[in-house]
Amino acid sequence: MRLLIAIWSGKALIALTRMLGRGGTTLPGRVALAIAPGLSFLLARRLKQGTVAVTGTNGKTTTAYLVNGILEKAGYKCIHNQSGSNMSWGVASTLIENCSWRGRMDGDFAVMEVDEGAFPGAVAELRPRGVVLTNIFRDQLDRFGEIDSIQALIKKGLDQIPAGSFQVLNADDPSLASIKNDNNSARWTYGLELELPPDEFDNTGQDLKTCPACSKKLEYTRIYFAHIGHYRCPSCPYRRPDPDVRLTERRVSAEGISRVKLNLPDQALELNVPLLGIYNLYNVLAAVTCARALAIPTAAISAALGKAAPSFGRMERFDKDNKEIIMALIKNPVGANEVLRTILNQPGKITIVVAINDNIADGTDVSWLWDVDFEQLSAVASRFSAVVVTGLRAWDMAVRFKYAGFEPERIMVEDNPGRAIEVALDQTAPGSKLFILPTYTAMLGMRRHLNKMGLGIPYWEES
Amino acid sequence: MGEINIYHLYPAHLNLYGDRGNMLALCRRAEWRGIEVNIVPVNPGDRIAFSSCDLLFMGGGQDSDQKLVADDLKRRSGEMRKAVEHNMVIFAVCGSYQLLGRYYTTARGEKIGGLEIMDLYTDAGKGRLIGNAAINCAIWDPPRTLVGFENHGGRTYLGPNLDPLGTVLHGYGNNGVDKTEGAVYKNVIGTYLHGSLLPKNPWLADHLLRKALAYRHQDHGLRELDDFTEEQAHQAALQLAASKRVNKKPSL
Ligand SMILES: [Zn+2]
Q: Does the domain made of A2-306 have the CATH classification 3.40.1190.10?
């Protein structure tokens, strides 16, 4: 009975927040969990095929989206949460939204993106059939305090996954691959094996990776970005595990579509991936490895990935009067650097809007902006037709650009985010690209403005 | 137009919370005035003489990093103390501010000896003190505000003869109790404020540069710069710190 009351309250609150024009997922879940704390456990176990939980610092939204797409292509009905609903209450809201008024779950799988901080709790509640781990970088330090604690959280979650389930993790991230856990779940690893030009980006503030066995500094034969690459210990046998799934070839077409070759344990697979950026190759690897662990046929994998559109603010594209608007969420230095690298790989003139908020979902400490290598943009300042900053922390960003080397006169500060988009569009020539780089809540605001301009659709009406 | 040597202590270990911004502010504001800056990274084990250092920058680190460098730092403490008595400039943020004192206690309860440059000590507290902060800083006349962000588990207490860097207007400061923030001894400034601190508080950056030049007997004076952008950021941060969005209770 308690469960039903929780479901009804949750459903009523979801309807109410939608009516108010918000995609609110926090309040309904919180209220429902207050009424029935075991709600997620009770609902998740009613799924026919179980839950896949995806966590990590960067790429979890895109990875979860890709896994979801593959499973649907394979004929399963999936429940999937949006980024921003990746705390326990968001997971609860998503489950409530997808069950009947009597508590019947309408779905085979749930694919849940889970915040690193919420990971141990989510594992305990969802008893997942599989977990997918993307990477660990410095993120919102105001939340976690110290970086070691993120690793500890992931380990705590892994220690609790049920026997007989599987884990998928990035072999190229030593801070993940070195996590030891003593359960008898199947362990699948993935890794990139490409020759790539070295990353010019200065990832200041990243941890030094040391050998988990003997604490010596790890040596790298390849670094793809930050501490992600091929590593080994100089003084003991510890090294990168040989991945079960490897990406060994990539050709990029003029339209930005990558043709990639994947080596699975028993066969090779060629795929088209319409997502930009090296970091998306890792998201593809994670999703394919997860699909493989679930024994999904390769035909469904190729079909789903070929049609993958960027998810929710991750290089999401809009068209306005022959000007292409691309929105790319930024939330931590490594992720932001990868976005900047992808932007700089685009031909032609570029307009850029950076929208920085410091609400709780963004991280209340904006000092991470100083660890993003914005100097890479000012090094080619003439390529930018305009640089616009907005958001609650617009002036912090203006100072960042100034010290990165942009002339102060060229940095346009627009407190109103809607005006910022308009000003930037005015400065963008037809045929050119406008990049919007928002933090999480700034992205929600930006999306509302784009919706008002007739671009895109409100996110709670998607899918 | 002058030249200064900025030593950056353990850049690979002590670099939390946008410390790069503090280094950038010092370097750019010197370069914009035609002052040549030499940056010397100091890594554990390096043989470095502090006699040619004008300004030493020490950033923040997490407990594990601080422990890693503590031994190396101990070996340098005698030389550093001597340089401080001769008025070498030190700017230390967060974790390394704690290292300047007698000792600090980690979250796990380990007591780690400090450099004993300043008469202060740091105990582990319950919950972290996190949020936007502003202080009234009396090392200028008339006093000016400093704005930043604090995030520390340690509670720092100053000895009776040590001056704080300022008094808390918004936020927690050294320990969340006595309304002091940071500490000043001779040309050494320690603070919990990051954000990064110097870009948003350009006069503190200039103060450090001026002291460093004077330490090398280069009294060129510093040309005024157009700080409109920095001032706007300062004012905006001040308003934020004063607003209700500041954390009121330590977050556990
Ligand atoms: Zn080793």
A: yes
